[in-house]
């Protein structure tokens, strides 16, 4: 037997698809959902302990999402590094936040954890979009179902753990979960040689990524920028708003945000079916129109029961927006940098607009008045969704051939 016959030929790793196995991507994205949404449910406790105003609370939200924006911007071609690196940085950030006793270290910990979460979310979404080439929208909807599931758990965990353990222990435990997931993601990997096809199916040449024209790139970035602000305005401030409306304890105050996240989760599980019956843009526009009306209803209601109903409906109306928008983007085959900057724009909006809500609330003396911010964002998104981008995309694609 010759030396040549005893060796096995190895193909080079396909950096577009190689990375943690699907189950660990699901666990990781669930943790990033927790990491994205955790601040809203605990914000009233932190504000009371640190004696800070709504404007200062808005700075904490801004620090986390500025980090998420920069994390999303830093995704490079080797996507598995972004996934695992994001989990490791999240571990460091949440550990630092657990040790904080005031605004200084708290902002630093939130910034680092936000950077890690933003890097992990962006890299994971791009990796899944590249790995599942035949059912991209469905795969992204499933992925974001787990992200939303993690976000749903925040309200329950805050209500159960904070009265008993405070912030320190749960945050350190959360950091440890990110560390374990990162280590498991390094060990358990798949798709070394690229996307696998059923036996007998001939693989087509992989579609090349393209450099999207600036108008198309900016259009998608603007959509995610505004949507990130809208979703975070509601999820970040809803617990505080509910507590001030109802005058209840922390457990009761979590019900509105839990219902919102639960509806977002259920809506994303159902979104693929809705978008098979109607076009993605039609579902988006209908959802945004209903969302604007529901935010106005939330801002004017005096009933805790109606607040719960409006939160469920708002979650369902917002649910299809992200997976459909990002699925449309990925079908245009953007390179990793452009896809990353579009997702990063969501983090920038999530940093700016909730802080703006806190600013308006502090200076007007009413968080109810500050609801004008997410209401205006829903209307702006509806207007932007009416702007056509297909002609630009077609010009870009035809230029490649």
Describe it.
- There is one protein chain.
- The protein has helices spanning 22-37, 39-50, 54-73, 79-98, 103-131, 136-165, 168-187, 214-246, 250-253, 255-277, 280-300, 304-318, 321-331, 336-364, 367-370, 372-385, 390-398; strands at 19-20, 189-190.
- The chain is mostly helical.
- It has a single domain (13-195, 210-398), classed as Growth Hormone, Chain: A (Up-down Bundle).
- A two-stranded antiparallel ribbon has the order 1-2.
- α1 runs antiparallel to α5 (103-131), α4 runs antiparallel to α5 and α6 runs antiparallel to α10.
Just name the CATH architecture: Up-down Bundle
Secondary-structure element sequence?
EHHHHHHHEHHHHHHHHHH
Kindly provide the radius of gyration, computed on alpha-carbon positions and rounded to a whole number of angstroms.
21 Å
Structural class: mainly alpha
Q: Give me the number of helical elements.
A: 17
N-to-C CA distance: 48 Å
> Quick one: CATH superfamily?
MFS general substrate transporter like domains
Beta strand %:
under 5%
Uncertain runs: 1-9, 200-206, 391-401
CATH class type: Mainly Alpha
